[in-house]
Amino acid sequence: MIAMLLAALVAFQSDDIAKLVRDLEANDIETREKATVALLALGAKAIEPLEKAAGAAGGETAARIKGIAARIKSRAEFRDQLIAGQNNGMSYQHIVNAKQQKSLPDEDIDGVINELCGAAGNLMLKNYLVQAIAQLRILTAIPGLVKMLRDNQ
Cα–Cα distance between 74 and 116 in angstroms, integer? Predict the structure, then answer.
């Protein structure tokens, strides 16, 4: 099964992604979790190879791969909502809704906020992000906030 999985990946992505996908089949949970975190961190560039790998994988591994691809897509959609909402003041409300409705895991919401705080961009969006970090006590977003403040000095 691993050989088929790797064959599907070779044409589409680097050896790193192939190794991470292979690690999703590991017997120990720690290896699988590390691979999951690494694939999530790769973001959109991992979606196509993951979708190809899911087609070649079986059972539990295919479900795990599809779940990772879905989380990456959800994070990208949330990020896009925050960026689009900056023009009409809805960025803060999108964060509140996502937190209250648990539409994304907190670590994904916080990761997107951290990413946007650390990126160059619109001051209005950053204002909404700071408001959300303070009012919702998003402690894991503090590193991105610190980076943003340093970069804007």
Answer: 15
If one compares 106 and 147, the residue with the highest pLDDT of the two is 106
Rounded to whole angstroms, how far apart are CA atoms 141 and 139? 5
Look-up of token digits 């897509």: 73
pTM comes to 0.73
Q: DSSP secondary-structure letter at 89?
A: T
Tokens of 3: 């050989």
Task: Give the separation between CA 145 and CA 4, rounded to whole angstroms.
Answer: 43
Burial of 49: CB neighbours in 10 Å, binned 0-12, 13-18, 19+: buried
Per-residue pLDDT tens over the stretch 82-138: 888 776 678 888 888 888 888 888 888 888 887 887 775 667 777 888 888 888 888
Q: Which helix (H) or strand (E) holds 91?
A: helix 91-101
